[in-house]
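> example.struct
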């Protein structure tokens, strides 16, 4: 596979390994994995970024280099890196502040195995009891013509190059949002087209969640319900949607909460029914609405979830109990329809403002100095 960042990867390898670059690339599953995972580098902020698995590799190789094993020493004698150190370091990296432990513990290895089922070595080794971790040195060293090459430093540089490219993409995305916000009254159609482009299957998961929130917030904004303890003392209450925190947060499966109805919303891009039921179990099987990054119909998505549930559970009563907890399925066409409804109500500028505000928080974007800000 060759994409826009592949020449950058090749140049980094040439800098370190010269004429051996092509042979190294062909013989190294780890380099090929990096090439696959960096395919979104220049596809803009909307493309999926895959920082979690890359950073799991990154922090372990950093530790490996820090102890000098890329030059000397027997890594097999190393007592391993502590999980707490690796986890803290992950969250210090760009876009890593909300990463969880899943990539370090199993997801990176699972994905690597999916791409390279013929490779016996898994990238991350760990001892659960001691919470110690190692990078698999077999994947870091490649022998060519009786000479052994260590890829550690080059791998770090490749991931750094990818992150830098993504940082520029997100910076450009937020600046585009800012400019469109200022132009929202004059160029209504352009802003509408831009937002609809963010509600798509290939959009970065965090941006999709942010845009979904902004759309649903103003879709429900003018809707009201009546609450009270006595029939003659009912009070009119507007529906208000709250975002529970940053995206990918460990929030128990709740991305948005609606007051005063107490509705829970979870944004997802998977149809793995185990993930849905895990979220439902976390909140004691309280009904939940799912915003799914898919263009399939809500009916089709619900049917797929039921089929997955029936494969997992042989008991109809259990399947029915879980399925009743799925209050509503909101897919991409429904989001687009609700956006157009909010648009007719005059909320285009507010939706754009919300996208900008949430994106700046999510991507830790700092405002430029006034003299550098261009109209």
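> example.seq
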């Amino acid at each position: 596979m060759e994409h826009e960042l592949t020449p950058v990867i090749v140049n980094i390898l040439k800098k370190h390994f010269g004429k051996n670059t092509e042979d190294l690339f062909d013989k190294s599953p780890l380099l090929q994995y990096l090439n696959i995972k960096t395919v979104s580098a220049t596809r803009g902020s909307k493309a999926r970024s895959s920082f979690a698995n890359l950073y799991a590799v990154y922090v372990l190789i950093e530790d490996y280099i820090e102890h000098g094993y890329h030059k000397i020493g027997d890594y097999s004698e190393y007592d391993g890196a502590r999980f707490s150190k690796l986890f803290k370091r992950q969250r210090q990296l760009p876009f890593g502040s909300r990463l969880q432990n899943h990539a370090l513990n199993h997801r990176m290895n699972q994905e690597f195995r999916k791409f390279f089922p013929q490779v016996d070595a898994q990238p991350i080794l760990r001892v659960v009891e001691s919470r110690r971790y190692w990078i698999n040195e077999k994947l870091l060293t490649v022998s060519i013509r009786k000479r052994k090459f260590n890829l550690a430093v080059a791998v770090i540089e490749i991931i750094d190059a990818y992150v830098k490219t993504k940082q520029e993409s997100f910076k450009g995305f937020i600046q585009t949002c800012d400019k469109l916000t200022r132009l929202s009254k004059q160029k209504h159609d352009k802003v509408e087209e831009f937002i609809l482009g963010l509600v798509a299957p290939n959009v970065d998961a965090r941006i999709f969640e942010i845009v979904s929130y902004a759309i649903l917030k103003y879709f429900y904004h003018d809707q009201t319900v009546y609450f009270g303890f006595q029939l003659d003392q009912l009070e009119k209450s507007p529906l208000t949607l709250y975002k529970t925190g940053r995206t990918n947060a460990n929030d128990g499966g709740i991305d948005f909460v609606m007051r005063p109805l107490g509705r829970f919303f979870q944004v997802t891009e998977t149809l793995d029914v185990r993930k849905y039921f895990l979220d439902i179990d976390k909140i004691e099987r309280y009904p939940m609405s799912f915003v799914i990054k898919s263009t399939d119909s809500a009916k089709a998505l619900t049917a797929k979830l039921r089929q997955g549930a029936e494969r997992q559970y042989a008991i109809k009563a259990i399947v029915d109990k879980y399925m009743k907890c799925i209050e509503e399925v909101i897919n991409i066409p429904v989001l687009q329809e609700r956006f157009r409804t909010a648009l007719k109500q005059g909320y285009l500028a507010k939706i754009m403002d919300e996208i900008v505000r949430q994106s700046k928080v999510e991507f830790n974007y700092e405002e430029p100095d006034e003299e550098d800000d261009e109209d």
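> remarks
The two ends are 39 Å apart (CA to CA).
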